[in-house]
Write a structure and sequence with these properties.
- With about 325 residues, the protein is an all-alpha fold.
- The chain has 3 domains: about 1-45, no CATH class; about 55-150, Tetratricopeptide repeat domain (Serine Threonine Protein Phosphatase 5, Tetratricopeptide repeat), CATH 1.25.40; about 155-320, Orthogonal Bundle (Lysozyme).
- Helix content is about 65%, strand content about 0%.
- Helix 13 runs antiparallel to helix 18.
- The chain starts with a helix and ends with a helix.
Length: about 325
């Protein structure tokens, strides 16, 4: 069953580019032997193996979006589908761009908007998608302004200067320290600020019932792991937290949701569940971090550590 699903995911992510190919795929999907043959061929096919991480991420997002759009294994949620499709579209996924155009053109769970539909159809059409080229003739011209969800945070946002500008003086001292230290560890200050806000709300003396200490709420084991001897010293605590974030970013290949989940629940829990653990606290935590940080991915240094041995399983689970 898992092999069958994987074959379907490979078909959906790699070969659905135009109407002719989609028609051929429907025929394949009714022939299990053909799906298995395709899976074997794909395992030795350079284009599939060499697909960049960006493409894998986009395909994963698109499959998750489709599940939310149609209620496949999850509650139907058009808003969530739109968000995920948009993230995949920003990464260049043609099918996600087409599906978003279709949702807007038909008012599928969202208000109908031909101009926005045309914008996404244009993105796909420019990559050669024949169906999108046809749909453009029906919905008209795209709007001049890109949809809001396609906007990438700029360097100002990554540095968190907008957060600093609104901060009270006590918090600003911590933020200034983050702005100074974070670049040394290859961590965007905005991500570190999001973690600190969620962990301690910028209180250097914070102490949790589980003995997590200081600004970035380091438990004793993590403090020892990253050579933090004075966890209530703001600079030492931030350096320890940044060291852990740097490690997690390399371990989970820059996936912000997994990094946030691991910071909250531990990398072992993320590996065990092959994704964000089903703990309400952790899922709420990940949501808060993403609302502040906004980006799905963060640059990472692969020399820090190798990726999680469960990372391929995590990607596969998302595709399923």
């Amino acid at each position: 069953m898992r092999l069958h699903l994987l074959a379907r995911a490979l078909i959906s992510g790699v070969y659905k580019e135009n109407l002719v190919k989609r028609s051929r795929l429907k025929k394949l999907q009714n022939k299990p032997w053909a799906l298995y043959a395709l899976l074997v061929v794909s395992a030795f096919s350079k284009p599939v193996i060499a697909e960049p991480a960006k493409g894998e991420k986009a395909a994963s997002l698109r499959v998750e979006a489709r599940n939310h759009e149609h209620g496949n294994g999850v509650l139907r949620d058009a808003a969530k589908a739109l968000q995920l499709y948009c993230e995949a579209s920003r990464l260049g996924d043609v099918e996600a761009q087409y599906n978003l155009g279709w949702m807007y053109a038909n008012g599928r769970g969202i208000p109908r908007d031909d101009a926005t539909a045309a914008y996404f159809f244009t993105m796909a059409a420019q990559q050669g998608d024949a169906l999108s080229q046809r749909m453009l003739r029906q919905v008209g011209e795209p709007g001049s302004k890109p949809p809001e969800c396609l906007a990438q945070p700029d360097e100002h946002d990554k540095n968190g200067e907008d957060i600093v500008a609104k901060a009270i003086p006590e918090h600003r001292k911590v933020m200034d320290l983050v702005l100074k230290l974070a670049p040394e560890y290859g961590v965007y200050p905005r991500l570190a600020m999001a973690i600190i806000r969620a962990e301690s709300n910028f209180n250097p003396g914070a102490l949790s019932p589980k003995n997590a200490q200081g600004l970035m709420q380091l438990i004793p084991e993590t403090a020892e792991r990253f050579n933090v001897r004075k966890p209530f010293d703001p600079e030492q605590n931030i350096r320890g937290g940044l060291s852990y974030l740097r490690w997690l970013l390399a371990y989970f290949k820059g996936d912000v949701s997994l990094v946030a989940a691991a910071y909250n629940a531990g990398e072992g829990a993320v590996n065990r569940y092959a994704g964000v653990p089903p703990y309400p606290e952790t899922r709420g935590y990940v949501k808060r971090i993403r609302e502040i940080f906004k980006l799905e991915d963060h640059p990472f240094d692969p020399a820090i550590t190798g990726p999680s041995p469960e990372f391929p399983k995590i990607l596969l689970r998302r595709l399923m």
